[in-house]
Amino acid sequence: MADFLTPVLNFIDSTHLFEQIRNVQVKALFTNPWFLVPFIAQMGWWFYKQAVNSIVCTGLAIGLWWFSGSSYTQALIINGELQPGKILPVAGVGIGVLLVLIYLFFIRSD
To answer: Residues 73, 65, 57, 41: what is their CA dihedral angle, to the nearest 10 degrees?
Structure first.
C-alpha cells in the first residue's frame, strides 16, 4: 500500500499543493471569472437537480474555510501555546459540522 501512495505524496510535495491552498486570496478567488462561472454553474445545476446534500456540503466547506482563517482561530495558538479558553468553541463548530453531515447522509432519507 505504501508503494502506491509514495508517488502521489511525492507529486503533492513537488507541486507545493498545501502552500498554494494556504495562500489563496478569497476575495480575489470569488471575483475571478475563471472560478466564479463554473462555481455558479455547478451550484445552479445542483439547485436544478435539488441536490441538497451537495449544496449543504459545499456551504459547510466554504464556511469552515472562512472560519479557519478568521481572527478567532488565528489567536488559538499564541507564542506556540494553545489557548485553553478558545478550544471549546472550535470543538463545538467541528461537532456541529459532523452532526449536520451525519444527519444529511445517515438520518435524512431522500
So the answer is: 160
